[in-house]
Design goal:
Elements: E1 4-10, H1 22-42, E2 48-50, H2 53-62, H3 64-75, E3 79-81, H4 96-114, E4 120-123, H5 133-139, E5 144-147, E6 161-165, E7 171-175, H6 189-202, E8 207-212, E9 214-215, E10 219-220, H7 223-235, E11 239-243, H8 246-256, E12 262-264, H9 279-305, H10 314-322, H11 335-366, E13 382-387, E14 394-403, E15 421-424, E16 434-436, E17 450-459, E18 463-471, E19 488-490, E20 494-497, E21 506-509, E22 512-513, E23 521-526, H12 536-539, E24 546-549, E25 551-559, E26 564-572, E27 577-585, E28 591-599, E29 604-611, E30 617-621, E31 624-628, E32 634-635, E33 639-642, E34 645-649, E35 654-658, E36 661-669, H13 682-686, E37 699-708, H14 713-722, E38 726-730, E39 740-742, E40 744-747, E41 751-758, E42 765-771, E43 777-783, E44 786-793, E45 798-806, E46 809-815
Parallel strand pairs: 1-8, 1-11, 2-3, 4-5, 5-7, 6-12
Antiparallel strand pairs: 6-7, 9-10, 13-18, 13-38, 14-17, 15-18, 16-17, 18-39, 19-20, 20-21, 21-22, 23-24, 23-29, 25-26, 26-27, 27-28, 28-37, 29-36, 30-31, 30-33, 32-35, 33-34, 34-37, 35-36, 40-43, 41-42, 42-45, 43-44, 45-46
Helix pairs in contact: 1-2, 1-3, 2-3, 9-11, 10-11
């Protein structure tokens, strides 16, 4: 009988942001690695694993001598570079493309510095793992995945080693240690080895991982631990004790050829409060993530077609990637750290805006944007360039707002609604429109010069259209609309109504109630737990002790017209409120809602309640779609749906289904980095959350969501919600390009474009898609006037291609996430 082999996996888990800020955390990474290297000089047998390219890059920049020492140990086989990502991200909340960028950036960095890419991902401390992650990892060259959360009590697994399979069928070899977590206390080494031996003797695996080392703020193995390992190995000759690494462990497990079980789908749940903690950061993160991705695509397409250099968006993406870290995005760090991280996101947003503006202005210079010549002393109309950032056509409404003159419009003083307006499409055809209030509150009936209109438009895929909008004497004006009754709006498909004192907002579709009971309502539930949430037994049943059921306190019909109607509804409790503006557009089979929350609570969370009458719900999650039975608080992506009901948002991550109700958590009032997950009584939290300590998210929050029938349009609507069309006032002038045009189109619609970007090596572009229908399909890209066949994309999979211009023609070749 072969001996057991214990693979000692020395590591030093480091949270670059948590109970400290990023400056301290990154420098601790440098300090830890210096300490580890010194210890490796002292103990010749010692090995070490380290992931996170951001930490290596920090060391390389600030301490080149230490970096060279690391390279030597990597070459010697004693330092195992693992993970493959920029940082250890949360593995439930970021977008699919964000995970792809983690591996693209991380793997390319490791290859450039160490001459190798990583085959084993390392996520010891992230809070559960989304179902589509194996699909992403396989595309990035990852074949093994080591982790420790959720622990066995939350997620039973038949063996420490197993096959983890995504809904697409992609699978990686997973490993969770049978004993302990990723690290050890100073005095725990001998017990960890004894307990591991007992567990190994009950199983059939001959290769066993033993994770050890101090860590949370760096650390790693101690001299005592290394001496005790020597002591234990001498006392147990029946065990082959080797200082190892994750690659060596996984290679050994494969070589065993022992039958392994298969785990299909997600590996959740743990620390569920993190799906909703620090909403102000989560909302900003979603906005930044969407803006950077959309801008990069816009710039790459426009600049390539115009034969101009494509912008470098790496800095903006680095912000998105770093801020996906599993103690930043989940909401478990200190307040001072969030000040820094929000500033970092703000920098990325600004960079994205500058890049987008430059690309659209470059397009505008090339396009014919002429408008009709003004008559007499009247001002000319505005030329507006509208851009569709998606590879499918857009048909819907957008808003134009612009100045009609450079001073107040004197001829219509006191009569702002009488100003004759005209909106023309790219062909010069008049478009219907509806005037709506401008955004500012400065102007008055006697002093105004701006106008805002809602216009139905059609935009070609990844394309543009020029519109003319201005004050034109004699222009035919829309007929005066019938005023909607107070408290009710309709577009012929949906009707939304509310009344003061009611428990909810009623929504009807084609005359039938969409939601049961009181309709869309708002509750505040008791949430006495810390940043990470309550014990799983609590979270698994949903947080349902209702403190307040808010009532409608005010209702106003604020817009009424042929293109859009809007109903403003305020719900309020004793200290907080939420204002929901429901918008219904002509011909649109969806209800669009803008939300503004004023939150001033402690030990509570706010939920939107939607009685949908269904038990199960399908969720978009990174890399996949997954259906769940009611199981408490769960993470979600951009959309989810039940039978005949769909919900999408640009900000929310946390949901639960209970008694036929779908409930979306908006915000929770805990403390910053408040550890009370295992305390049974609210007093335990209250003792730490003193009145002078800040409660998270006090103040104003804004987000948007929509409701539809849960049909195939929902994923597309969710994309438009996060990345809407862009309109820009541009100079009116002649140009070589026509007034309307498309630069690229992707078919069929079941192929969701994740990215169209400059390749990491700068040679051409990279197209990445995800098949979303669950059926294999043949894809085609129309690009620069060419139709490029993409071949077959298997059901549920992610696929990437490199686009290159050769001898005047574009070629397409399959590649991986890391573009090799």
């Amino acid at each position: 009988m072969s001996k057991l082999t214990f693979h000692l996996i020395a590591n030093a888990h480091l949270d670059p942001v948590w109970l400290w800020d990023w400056r301290e955390g990154m420098n601790e990474g440098l300090i830890t690695c210096r300490t580890i290297l010194d210890l490796m000089d002292e103990f010749a047998e010692m090995t070490f694993v380290r992931g996170e390219s951001a930490i290596y890059q920090h060391i390389e920049e600030h301490d080149p001598k230490t970096f060279r020492r690391i390279v030597r140990q990597v070459d010697a086989g004693r330092w195992d570079v693992v993970g493959g990502t920029v940082i250890q991200p949360d593995t439930n909340l970021p977008a699919t493309e964000t995970f792809a960028r983690h591996f693209a950036r991380g793997q390319n960095y490791f290859r450039s510095r160490f001459g190798r890419t990583v085959r084993v991902a390392w996520a010891p401390d992230s809070f559960g793992h989304c179902a589509g992650l194996p699909e992403i990892m396989v595309n990035a060259g990852i074949s093994g995945y080591a982790f420790t959360r959720p622990l066995a009590g939350m997620l039973p697994l038949a063996k420490p080693a197993f096959w983890w399979e995504a809904p697409s069928g992609a699978r990686v070899l997973g490993y969770r240690p049978a004993v302990g977590w990723y690290g050890t206390s100073r005095d725990e080494m001998l017990k960890r080895l004894d307990d591991t031996l007992a567990a190994a003797q009950r199983g059939d695996l001959k290769d066993v991982g033993v994770f050890y080392g101090l860590g949370n703020h760096g650390g790693g193995p101690s001299r005592r631990q290394l001496r005790e390992i020597r002591q234990w190995a001498a006392a147990h000759p029946e065990v082959n004790v080797v200082h190892s690494g994750l690659h060596r462990l996984f290679d050994a497990l494969r070589a065993e050829r022992t039958a392994l079980p298969t785990h299909r789908g997600e590996m959740n749940f743990t620390l569920r409060g993190c799906y909703a903690s620090v909403a102000k950061f989560k909302f900003a993160y979603r906005k930044t993530q969407a803006a950077v991705a959309s801008t990069e695509q816009t710039d790459a397409v426009i600049r390539t077609v115009l034969r101009q250099p494509v912008a470098d968006t790496h800095d903006a993406w680095d912000s998105v990637l770093f801020n996906s870290f599993h103690d930043i995005l989940p909401g478990s760090s200190i307040e001072r750290a969030y000040d820094d991280q929000l500033a970092w996101l703000g920098s990325a947003i600004h960079q994205a805006q500058r890049t987008e503006l430059a690309a659209l202005n470059a397009l505008a210079l090339a396009v014919d944007t002429r408008v009709a010549k003004p008559v007499g002393e009247y001002p000319s109309a505005n030329a507006l360039l509208a851009w569709n950032p998606h590879p499918q056509p857009f048909r819907g409404h957008i808003e134009f707002e612009a100045c009609l003159d450079y001073r107040e419009i004197a001829p219509y003083k006191g009569r702002p609604d009488a100003v004759p307006l005209r909106v023309l499409d790219a062909a010069g055809k008049s478009l219907p429109f509806q005037s709506v209030p401008v955004e500012n509150s400065f102007e008055s009936p006697d002093w105004f010069w701006r106008k805002r209109v809602v216009v139905p438009v059609e935009l070609p895929p990844l394309g543009w259209s020029v519109f003319e909008f201005g004050w034109v004497e004699g222009a035919k004006q829309p007929a005066a609309p019938n005023r909607s009754p107070r408290g009710r709006v309709s577009n012929g498909i949906y009707r939304v109504q509310a009344r003061r004192g009611a428990a909810g907002v009623q929504i009807f579709r084609r005359g039938k109630k969409v939601l049961g009971g009181a309709g869309l309502s708002v509750i505040v539930v008791k949430d006495t737990w810390g940043s990470w949430g309550g014990p799983d037994a609590i979270e698994a049943k949903s947080l349902s002790e209702v403190l307040e059921r808010w009532r409608v306190t005010q209702v106003e019909t604020i817009e009424s017209g042929p293109e859009r109607a809007a109903l403003w509804v305020r719900f309020a409790g004793q200290r907080s409120r939420i204002e929901l503006t429901f918008q219904l557009y002509r011909g649109r089979d969806a209800v669009d809602v803008s939300a503004r929350v004023l939150w001033n609570e402690r030990q509570a969370r706010l939920k939107l309640v939607m009685p949908v009458g269904a038990r199960t719900a399908e969720f978009e999650v990174p890399g996949a779609r997954i259906r769940r039975e009611p199981c408490g608080e769960v993470p979600g992506g951009r959309w989810l749906r039940t039978r005949n009901f769909g919900f999408a948002s640009d900000a929310l991550y946390c949901f639960d289904c209970r008694n036929g109700e779908l409930r979306a958590t908006v915000v929770r009032a805990s403390g910053y980095a408040l550890s009370a997950t295992n305390q049974p009584q609210s007093d335990a939290v209250a003792s730490r959350l003193r009145p002078w300590r800040p409660a998270v998210d006090c103040g104003e929050l804004r987000f948007r969501f929509l409701i539809n029938p849960g049909n195939d349009e929902l994923p597309v609507l969710a994309q438009w919600l996060e990345q809407p069309p862009v309109s820009l006032v541009v100079p009116a002038k002649a140009g070589k390009l026509p007034r309307i045009g498309s630069m690229a189109a992707l078919r069929p619609a079941s192929l969701q474009m994740l990215a169209l970007k400059k390749s990491e090596d700068g040679r051409g572009l990279v197209l990445r898609v995800q098949e979303t229908s669950g059926k294999a399909t043949s894809g085609a890209l129309t690009w620069c006037g060419q139709k490029l066949g993409l071949g077959t994309v298997r059901a549920g999979t992610i696929a990437s291609w490199r686009l290159q211009l050769r001898r005047g023609c574009w070629t397409v070749k399959r590649t991986s996430i890391v573009e090799t």
